[in-house]
Specification:
With 234 residues, this protein is of the alpha/beta class. It has eight helices and eleven strands. The protein has two domains: 4-119, Rossmann fold (3-Layer(aba) Sandwich); 134-229, Winged helix-like DNA-binding domain superfamily/Winged helix DNA-binding domain (Arc Repressor Mutant, subunit A), CATH 1.10.10. One of its GO terms (molecular function) is phosphorelay response regulator activity.
Amino acid sequence: MTARILVVEDDTDLALALRTLLTRAGYDVVPAADGREALRLLFAERPALLILDIGLPELDGWAVLERTRDLSDLPVLLLTARGAETDRVRGLRSGADDYLPKPFGNDELLARVEALLRRAAPARWAGDSFDDGLRLVPERRSAVWQGQEARLSDIEYRLLQILVRNRGRVITTDQLLDRVWDDRDGTGRERVKFAVLRLRRKLRQAAGDEAADPLEAVRGLGYRYRAGGDPRGD
């Protein structure tokens, strides 16, 4: 099945180049020239990936990213002419999955798109539920587990979102540090352990069952969301 990509870029030349490149690579491209059009198309088209320029007119990319995270957990690749570390950190902490400053090479863009689509499970949208009883509630940054809502911190919600998106796959501690805290040096591994412990405790409390936990610690590697709520693991 052809992956659909929403490309939000107000530079007409770059937008045409991106559409041509991605179409030739076999993707179904939906273009948007501004933030308001992007949000309209986002829910109408339900793409598998969002490529988002930060410097948009009227409604900028930051606002689009924030609203996107209220609607879905689909992967987001940010494009920006600004290479400042503060912008990269802001983007990742706001829920983006990757960050590519302009100018960039065609091969690098395609490689990042392929990696994001390969890693991500099918996007979930506000109101969607999993067969095992979990539902993410992006607008409240919470999760409904076994019929009961668990209110989460931003960090806990982001952790759960990443693990759910990669359900069944082990996400390493270093990957979580990079994607949740932007700690690429891996200097804060204990914070992952304690954040996951707090998240698991909240899910168990919501279910009223200490055994009702969809997360699993994989010794020496990291964590995963067990597809189907498989009770194995600790």
